[in-house]
Structures are given as C-alpha cells and as structure tokens.
C-alpha cells in the first residue's frame, strides 16, 4: 500500500518538528495507541489496538527514526505484530516546509500487511489506512496548531455532574424490569 499527501499545520516549523518527536503528542494522535515509549532519541516501542473490518488486534511494535534533518523532516519506519491477526510494517518520509504563518507537512507512506489482515482485501486496507491517517492529522493539527498551546489555568469551580447514562438498546427495547412498559 502506498499513500501520500500533505497538510497545513497552523504552527511554525520548529513547533511542528518538536511535536513530531514528542511521544506524548504522538500517542494522543495515533488512533488506538495505548502506549508509546521512547527507548532512545530515535527508537520507540508502541502498543496499538485497531480494528480493520472484522479483525480486531493489539499490535506490539517498534518504531525507528532515521535520516533526521531538524526541523525539515525525517524517515520513520515501524513494524508491529498483531498475533493471529497478522503483522504490519512500513515507513514514511515526512518533510516540513514553511507555509505562510504555518508549516506544510508532506508525507509519503509505504506499508505492507500480512496474515488475516492481508486476506481482507486491498480496498478495505487502503480505506482503513486513509481513515487512520486522516484521524492522526486532524488530531495532530488540533494539538499542535491550536492557538492556545498552553495548559488552561486550573479551575476552582466545582466539576459539572456527569450526564445521565442512556440505557442500552436491550434495556430500551425490553425495559429494565419485568412488567415495565416500553417507552
């Protein structure tokens, strides 16, 4: 699978570069990412839970950064094993350039999947990969490019009560107890 594209991020190039190397920001942006730990400035380990069509899997993997050219870009490569679901491996070249008051991020991705995932078919894999990339860049743009990049001041107001939980479809359909009428 090959995928490429570009995004405008409303932040300067140094800020975008720093965010691309911050494991906490990346963990928040990667869909399904449970952990992302730096082992060294160029090596990370990750655990990601994903669903691709009918296949759900938790992938444990390694990520390596290379060809670092701060703050212009790098190459990122990774591989993950999802047990019986199969494996995923691939890499991307990321290039940053000034774009008005923000930064243009270009990416070129090449990936390969095997096992049950490979049997799902190219269209499903490609559409899922595009959706995951869109989710990543949307979240990344919000976290990095938002005008308020500082943590909000702590509030002294009492927290709002949680909204009442709606009953599930089973309870709505059959009622909570015997003899209750459906609404």
What does this protein structure show overall?
The protein is α+β, with helices and mostly antiparallel strands and 183 residues long. It has a single domain (2-147), classed as 2-Layer Sandwich (Alpha-D-Glucose-1,6-Bisphosphate, Chain A, domain 4), CATH 3.30.530. The chain is built from four helices and seven strands, in the order βααββββββαα. It has helices spanning 13-20, 23-29, 122-145, 169-174; strands spanning 2-9, 33-40, 43-52, 55-69, 73-81, 87-99, 102-114. A seven-stranded antiparallel beta sheet has the order 1-7-6-5-4-3-2, with helices on one face. A hairpin with a 3-residue loop joins strand 4 (55-69) and strand 5 (73-81). Helix 2 (23-29) crosses helix 3 (122-145). The longest helix has 24 residues, at 122-145. The relative contact order is 0.18. The model is unreliable at 148-163, 169-174 and 176-183 (pLDDT under 50).
Q: Ranges with pLDDT <50 over ≥5 residues?
A: 148-163, 169-174, 176-183
Tell me the total number of β-strands.
7
Instruction: Report the top-level CATH class.
Output: Alpha Beta
Report the structural category.
Answer: alpha+beta
Number of structural units classed as domains: 1
Contiguous helical run count: 4
**Helix residue percentage:** 10-25%
CATH domain fold name:
Alpha-D-Glucose-1,6-Bisphosphate, Chain A, domain 4
Instruction: Describe the global form.
Output: globular
| Rg measurement, Å | 21 Å
């Amino acid at each position: 699978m090959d995928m490429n594209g570009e995004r405008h991020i409303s932040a300067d190039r140094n800020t975008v570069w720093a965010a691309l190397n911050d494991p906490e920001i990346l963990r928040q942006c990667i869909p399904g990412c449970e952990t992302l730990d730096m082992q060294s400035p160029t090596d990370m380990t990750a655990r990601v839970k994903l669903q691709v069509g009918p296949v759900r899997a938790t992938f444990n993997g390694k990520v390596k950064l290379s060809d670092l050219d701060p703050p212009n870009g790098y190459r990122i490569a990774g591989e993950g094993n999802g047990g019986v679901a199969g494996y995923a491996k691939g890499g991307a070249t990321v290039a940053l350039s000034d774009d008005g008051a923000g930064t243009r991020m270009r990416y070129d991705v090449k990936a390969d999947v095997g096992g049950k995932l490979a049997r799902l078919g190219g269209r499903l894999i490609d559409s899922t990969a595009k959706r995951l990339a869109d989710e990543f860049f949307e979240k990344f743009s919000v976290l990095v490019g938002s005008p308020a990049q500082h943590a909000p001041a702590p509030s002294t107001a009492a927290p709002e009560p949680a909204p009442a939980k709606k009953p599930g479809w089973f309870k709505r359909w059959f009622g909570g107890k015997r003899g209750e009428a459906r609404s």
